[in-house]
Write a structure and sequence with these properties.
about 290 residues, about 35% strand, 7-stranded mixed β-sheet, alpha+beta
Length: about 290
């Protein structure tokens, strides 16, 4: 059975799923209270497409979510992409490890039981610090006169440990640039020994919390501003003046608040050296995490 065909098969949930318990007992499926938590975005890459369970038990949520989309009432269905909010549901009467999934404020399902058990510890730790994980999500649904057929997936790191940077976050106040645009650092050559040590210690898939510090570089004819890239207080490269200009507003804003500007960085093997790449959206910063 293909992916598209499977969307139209309203199969019963496994007996261990919270909604299945509610269905069996005739009760209304459990809907947790919206988490009052700040936004946290994974520091590591999110290559895993994680299925959400129990969508078919929350018809009203999908009707509210997709109200006004003409395709929602067609065989083709309606697709939207947005962040999902994943948070522990400690009050769930059926699963102590339950992880709720919300999109645009609507509760649309849970992580399957085995996946919830794997993620509960990390997400409970985040919640204790006042944050909930926000992850890219894809929602597809269609409705007829009787029911809603839906599928939700979220993009997650391969392992809960990848939620965090490989190195310690700065101890002084800091603000992180949102991921979303990749840019290349330059002048890594003097720092190859340091980069090799990090690469060997954490591996090729690690993501680092790199501090961007505005500094000046003098040439024979002028002085230019550049953002120096440091990891654990040690320089590993810098951005060109042209690239620096794209992040200048964020750097100045952070400095005015007495904060460090932090970006996600990776180390990879280039043609003749180890290179540093940043993943940082321009002008958009998260709260201190």
């Amino acid at each position: 059975m293909g992916w598209f065909t499977s969307l139209f098969k309203r199969s019963a949930q496994p007996a261990h799923h919270p909604a299945a318990h509610a269905r069996a007992s005739g009760a209304v499926p459990h809907v947790p209270a919206p988490p009052q938590l700040g936004r946290y975005v994974s520091w590591g890459p999110t290559p895993i497409t994680q299925e959400v369970a129990g969508e078919n038990w929350y018809d009203d949520a999908f009707r509210r979510l997709l109200h006004g989309h003409p395709a929602f009432a067609t065989l083709q269905g309606q697709e939207i992409r947005d962040d999902a909010v994943l948070a522990p549901d400690p009050g769930n009467p059926y699963d102590a490890n339950a992880i709720s999934v919300r999109v645009r404020g609507e509760h649309v399902g849970y992580l399957p039981r085995d996946d919830a058990a794997r993620w509960n510890g990390a997400l409970t730790h985040l919640a204790s610090r006042g944050y909930a994980l926000h992850a890219p999500a894809r929602v597809w649904a269609r409705a007829d006169d009787r029911r809603v057929y839906a599928r939700v997936t979220v993009q997650l790191p391969a392992d809960p440990s990848h939620l965090y940077a490989a190195n310690p976050f700065p101890q002084q106040p800091w603000r992180a640039l949102e991921p979303g645009n990749r840019c290349q650092a330059t002048k890594e050559e003097p720092h190859q020994e340091r980069l090799l040590g990090l690469y060997r210690q954490h591996g090729p898939d690690a993501t680092y919390a790199a501090v961007l510090t505005l500094t000046e570089r003098a040439t024979k004819t002028q002085v230019k501003q550049v953002l120096e890239v440091t990891i654990d207080g040690n320089p590993v490269g810098e951005l060109t003046p042209t690239t620096t200009a794209k992040y200048l507003a964020s750097a100045q804003q952070a400095a005015s608040r007495g904060e460090l500007l932090v970006a996600r960085a990776s180390i990879y093997e280039g043609k003749n050296k180890l290179e540093v790449r940043l993943d940082a959206r321009q002008y958009a910063a998260e709260e201190d995490q």
